[in-house]
Design a protein that fits this description.
Elements: E1 17-18, H1 29-42, H2 46-67, E2 74-77, H3 80-90, E3 98-102, H4 111-114, E4 122-126, H5 135-139, E5 146-152, H6 164-171, E6 177-181, E7 198-202, E8 214-218, H7 220-223, H8 264-280, H9 282-302, E9 319-323, H10 327-336, E10 339-340, E11 342-344, E12 347-351, H11 358-376
Parallel strand pairs: 1-10, 3-4, 3-5, 5-6, 6-7
Antiparallel strand pairs: 2-8, 7-8, 9-12, 11-12
Helix pairs in contact: 1-2, 1-8, 2-8, 9-11
Keywords: Aminotransferase, Transferase
InterPro entries: Aminotrans_V_dom, PyrdxlP-dep_Trfase, PyrdxlP-dep_Trfase_major, PyrdxlP-dep_Trfase_small
GO molecular function, one term: transaminase activity
């Protein structure tokens, strides 16, 4: 199977094999040119500022298209951690109330809620089973005092896809909101804001853009009265109103979560990369990475590795994780051979995206086989 896009379109992929997209993506040459355009436009003064605004709105429209929503539902912050922390500090949890998380979650999805324990908020951690968490697992500890359920769409640790849609359908019968971290899925597989209350994601992984943007998508169905704990000039309807020294009014849409200017170089890059992803089609990208991932899982098992990622296509995405006690050492050795993947936590993780091919999979398997043989000897 060929890659969906030529590796030569990315800087450095002519001499490297990239299974590192779950950490960060390789830079596309078009993204670099887009960032240069930002600096050219900045020299145009007022006209440049208008172009920045146009790029921002176009970027939001692209993200909204990916998420099945509207541009008014998209806020652009500095990073995903900021978005999650803002939601945690703004939801007004009281002593005796609780939040449900699970043990396959990335630290940014856990730490803001732990901070609330000092206020008497209970954090209920759902244990995973065989490296996955089901919707039933997440719903089990939910009760009348649960105010938020937090889950990734795809686990950074195991690569398991979690059925947040089923969780949301049940939570709509309660007062608990659902926060989904789509950092390991948006840009690789379909994600829908209509099946959650909040969705957050990062710009520099599967979306192929650079660092500097955190996407916050807001479903207004149950969050219309949810207000952020902080305020900035971009989050209010009229920052120069006659009563600006006395009161203010938040925007009614997702803009209320934006305090100030975003990272425009990042947005120029993300406008380019989201155009690219949408032109290829998210469903097509999903099919590509699922087929390559299925081959990798089968061959890893043949080599004797214990895979953490489910084999069923509907239960995984682009991250393929497998048990490897020497994960960090193996990743370092592979990096010296020009193959990048994540090693740590007693595992290796190969992240497959549109620039990967069957030849990449075969190369990785050969390198792993050689490493395992050297380790055994």
């Amino acid at each position: 199977m060929e890659s969906l896009i030529k590796p030569s379109e990315f800087i450095g992929l002519d001499s490297r094999t990239w299974f590192y997209g779950g950490a960060e993506s390789p830079p596309h040459r078009g993204m670099v040119e887009a960032v240069k355009t930002y600096y050219t436009n900045r020299a145009e003064g007022p006209e440049g500022r208008q172009r920045n605004s146009d790029i921002e709105h176009a970027c939001k429209r692209n993200l909204a298209q990916m998420l099945g929503g509207s541009a008014e539902q998209i806020a652009l912050l500095s990073n995903t951690s900021e978005a999650i922390s803002m939601i945690a500090s703004s939801c007004g949890l009281k002593a005796g109330e609780n939040v449900v998380v699970h043990d396959l979650e990335f630290p940014s999805g856990i730490l803001p809620w732990l901070r609330l324990k000092a206020n008497g908020v209970e954090v209920r951690v759902v244990p995973s089973r065989e490296w996955t968490v089901t919707a039933e697992d997440l719903l089990s500890p939910v009760d009348e005092k649960t105010r938020m359920v937090v889950t990734s769409h795809v686990s950074y640790l195991s690569g398991a896809r979690i059925d947040y849609r089923q969780v949301y359908n049940e939570l709509k019968k309660t007062n608990a909101l659902l926060l989904v971290d789509a950092t390991q899925s948006l840009g690789a597989i379909p994600v829908n804001i209509n099946d959650a209350d909040f969705i957050v994601a990062s710009s520099y992984k599967w979306l192929l853009a650079g660092h500097g943007a955190g996407i916050l998508a807001v479903n207004p169905e149950r969050t219309s009265r949810f207000e952020p704990a902080y305020v900035g000039w971009r989050s209010v309807e009229d920052m120069f109103s006659d009563t600006r020294f006395e009161s203010f009014r938040f925007f009614p849409d997702a803009r209320r979560f934006e305090g100030g200017y975003p990272s425009y170089p990042t947005l120029y890059a993300m406008k380019f990369t989201t155009d690219l992803l949408l032109s290829l089609g998210i469903e097509r990208i999903e099919q590509h990475l699922l087929e390559l991932g299925g081959t990798l899982i089968r061959e890893l098992k043949r080599l004797g590795y214990e895979t953490m990622t489910p084999g069923e296509p509907e239960q995984r995405a682009g991250n393929i994780s497998f048990v490897c006690p020497e994960g960090e050492a193996f990743a370092e050795s592979l990096s010296k051979q020009g193959t990048y993947l994540w090693g740590g936590d007693g595992r290796l993780r190969a992240s497959i995206h549109l620039y990967n091919s069957s030849a990449d999979i075969a190369k990785l398997l050969g390198q792993l086989s050689a490493l395992a043989s050297g380790q055994a000897s």
